[in-house]
Amino acid sequence: MDTSNLATVEVKDLMNDAKQILLLHAKKTYLLSITRKGKLILTLAESSQSKD
Q: What angle do CA 13, 19, 20 make, to 5 degrees?
């Protein structure tokens, strides 16, 4: 796969010194976390909004 034309984003710029942020994609919320060992974990976040 040729990645030379892909946009690059520094994680530190995205996270802004936080260990966790929320990402919105396709009407779903995901939690991006940095572990103590510096690895990234992306999980589907629990929804706190009710859909009535």
A: 90
pTM of the model: 0.77
d(CA 30, CA 25): 8
Residue 49 pLDDT greater than 70, yes or no: no
CA distance 42 to 21: 10
Per-residue pLDDT band for 3 (boundaries 50, 70, 90) equals very high
Structural domain span for residue 24: 11-44
Residue 52 located in a structural domain: no
CATH number assigned to the domain comprising residue 20: 2.10.70.10
The answer to whether residue 22 is domain-embedded is yes
